[in-house]
Amino acid sequence: MGARVAFAVLAIVLLWARPSVAQSASTANAPSGSASQPVVTSFTPDQVASILRDAGYRAEIVHENDKYRILTGMGGYKVVLYLYCTDTKCTSLDWDVSFTAAPKYTLTLVNKWNREKRYAKAYIANDGAFYLEYSLDFSGGVTKQTLAASASLFDSFVNGLDGWINSASQ
Fold it and tell me: Which of 121, 126, 156, 169 is most open to solvent, judged by the fewest CB atoms within 10 Å of its CB?
């Protein structure tokens, strides 16, 4: 009987303490400053450009045919950030870098990338150009830090791409 009572007391204590333990763990693992960043489901093109600049990237907004894109650079390559907006309310984006057709860009290479890598997908266009894309959807809510982190992630893919292609081609 004593063991049952001790177990019941322990269970009550753990259940009672659990929310504060979980809260402490999530707060301890949260990036600094994230508590003050609002979670949003859209950004304006100007906000996206500002976030990129704050993260150390060039950001030139282009508005043509009621569509927005931002031109930047990563790893010595031109990168285009396509914004999917209604008016100026953007709810998702695609990072995109492309390379002129070359014999080293094969379906075998593309398939290997898509099997081994997460987040960014590779494909070859009809004209033989090699593309690397990464999409970010805001519908579940994101912060400015999420957007800056997506830039950093795509930057790491672009910076490592030449080395990866050379090693994958051997």
Answer: 126
DSSP code at position 18: H
pLDDT, residue 11, reads: 36
User: What domains can you pick out in the chain, each with its CATH number?
Assistant: 41-168 (3.30.1460.70)
Task: Give SS3 for 134.
Answer: strand
- Please, is 83 exposed, middle or buried when counting C-beta atoms within 10 Å of its C-beta (0-12, 13-18, 19+)? buried
155 or 26, greater pLDDT = 155
How far is 157 from 142, CA to CA, in rounded Å?
Answer: 21
Write out the two tokens for 155. 């930057």
**How far is residue 89 from each of residues 55, 67, 139, 145, measured CA to CA in Å?**
21, 11, 12, 18
Nearest to 43 by CA among 71, 84, 103: 84
Distance CA 150, CA 83 (A): 14
Asked which of 19-33, 96-110, 121-135 is least confident by mean pLDDT, the reply is 19-33
Q: pLDDT tens for residues 7-62?
A: 333 333 333 333 333 333 333 334 444 567 899 999 999 999 999 999 999 999 99
